[in-house]
Amino acid sequence: MPRVRLVDVAERAGVSMKTVSNVIHDYPHVAPPLRARVQAAIDELGYRPNLTARRLATGRTGMIALAMPEIDHPYFSELSRSIAEEAKGLGLRVIFEQTLGEADAERAVLHDREAGLVDGVIFHPVQMGTMEIARLAPDVPVVLLGESAMPVTSDHVMIDNVAAAADGVALLLQSGRRRIAFLGTVRDDITGSTGQRLLGYQEQLIASGITPDPTLVLPVAGFSIEDSRDALTQAIESGIHFDAVLCRDDKFAIGALKSLAAAGRSVPDDVAVVGWDDTHLAGYSSPTLTSVAPDKRALARTALGLLKERIEGFAGIGRHRVVPHSISVRESTPPVETG
Amino acid sequence: MPRVRLVDVAERAGVSMKTVSNVIHDYPHVAPPLRARVQAAIDELGYRPNLTARRLATGRTGMIALAMPEIDHPYFSELSRSIAEEAKGLGLRVIFEQTLGEADAERAVLHDREAGLVDGVIFHPVQMGTMEIARLAPDVPVVLLGESAMPVTSDHVMIDNVAAAADGVALLLQSGRRRIAFLGTVRDDITGSTGQRLLGYQEQLIASGITPDPTLVLPVAGFSIEDSRDALTQAIESGIHFDAVLCRDDKFAIGALKSLAAAGRSVPDDVAVVGWDDTHLAGYSSPTLTSVAPDKRALARTALGLLKERIEGFAGIGRHRVVPHSISVRESTPPVETG
DNA sequence: CGGCAACTGTACAGCGCTGTAAACGTCCGC
DNA sequence: GCGGACGTTTACAGCGCTGTACAGTTGCCG
Hints:
Two copies of one chain form a homodimer. The first copy, chain A, is 42% helix and 16% strand. By secondary structure, chain A is an alpha/beta fold. In chain A, the strands form two sheets. Chain A has a six-stranded parallel sheet, with helices on both faces. Chain A has a six-stranded mixed sheet with strand order 7-6-8-9-10-12, sandwiched between helices. The longest helix of chain A has 16 residues, at 74-89. Chain A is elongated and about 85 Å long. The N and C termini of chain A lie far apart (74 Å). The mean pLDDT of chain A is 91. Chains A and B meet through α4, α5, β2, α11 and α12 of A and α4, α5, β2, α11 and α12 of B. Chain A binds a DNA duplex through residues 3, 5-7, 15-19, 21-22, 25, 29-31, 34, 49-50, 52-59, 116.
């Protein structure tokens, strides 16, 4: 394949390489007739610039890495889509790294064996803590997603999980529920998202004059639908009484729906269910699921904005941004009582 | 950031650049003591090779593009995950292109304005036809997924949709169903996947001595769950009698479940439902969904294998590979009658 | 009509790495 | 003890592009 190079075009147009380069980059100071001649040569030869050479010369790759635990998890794939679309708008290519929550894979994201692959990284850590990220991050501009770490050296975007959980509880309270359970894996650190959501849940209850009942905080053994289903079923069988469940994510909420259906409890009449992340799953279930909705678009836009600034040279300390959330109300919660 | 270069390491170790390069690449003919000395220099300086420069020198990028219609569609995201994992095993990085089924985006996949971005492309076309792909594809090694096009110049991997549909129908027949409906968008070309699935459905019925009833082929207006739900509801309201539904994908099957639940039909007792793609959705629904299961892992492995061969120079005509499928039996179909 | 500024366009030195060809030993076998 | 074979290391020329510094040109003002 005889690739056409810049010099070939230059030769054909009878100008210097640099002039051709200027035409390609729409550099203003090129006389119109010359520009036309060069453009003609480009078209005739079918010239296409070699990205790799450009990168070597400029030191920029125009690519960012997007590192997430699992690309086929609904929340991450939907967020990835938003990020991919925003990135395209900014002229950035996205390369995906799947960490599967493995510490080594996460470290590799920040400190690759090779350098110069990407200009920056958007990273949703699971394993790595604040300290370690801070130690490795100087290598490359990084924007962090999620709640597990917030070092001062990297930027960070998230929603206010405490407030969002409180909003979820408030919605349930407004519709008359009083015995609200929280369904989520709680063995992890209180700084993780589940911990924050639990905190918001408790705060809102207290603020509304209700003493949180610890038996209503239901731990789940793993991350599968079956785990959450079993956890709720166990609660039901233990005779724990509740009229609503706030779940740490949509998958757990789907598990809850399964458990409630099996137990013959009607949703939302007997028990209201609120999921989290507002993924497509929320529309697929029966009944459809009311879900706490992070503004994924805003998350994507904000993260890319911060990253772009860093790529372009910003070197200040880590910035933290909170993006909006809302609640997508569907069939799994009853209409709010008015008045 | 004072990047360490190959020459810095060479200088420190008192050898030539090339020797350092040889050490990095585990080139065999380097004397052990020298190798150790060079390695020490590498470690002390924290040297990491610059990928861009390497690419320019070798002409290889070590990256492939994965172009799919939507990265947050369950089937595509799950397939992407398999491909990403296989690619990692082969030392390839994956950059994602989302075409959203737009013709321009699809064309850009095969003929980018810039060259040298990736070594090859795995592409699931929706809009582009055989002709156009054949015209554009010579630029870069391509492996096609899906059924919409199969030019002789590119490789192609798929499952046998006709046989898979027949298997689905056979399963339903074995469990005693006789009035089997087919739910799917049929306005598209008979060569597309839906057409092939419909064909297999019809063939299997005929092979079993049943005359296909055209009123049981149910068109769907769009691609959403609501569209499929409404399509089935309309069929029910029209008084069409059926005791099973084979759906063109899991999403449509979820819509079917919704419609049947609303109509008070029990699944699988009154109506059995079979989905397609065996995505995570199949396990999330209630009842869980029996689904035709393409072997995604095999698909990924096969596609990458073919692509790798092309990247390494294979230039024969397009090869076509069929990978296995099976049926994941879950709750939405009754147990098969034995005997 | 000289001289300066504003435009246009060019030459050339890298960016950091690898492939090639050739040099340099060194060890054998005869 | 010498030619050759082999194993080891080096020098150097690119890969294709862009940034810098500078050379020509033209136009305009005083």
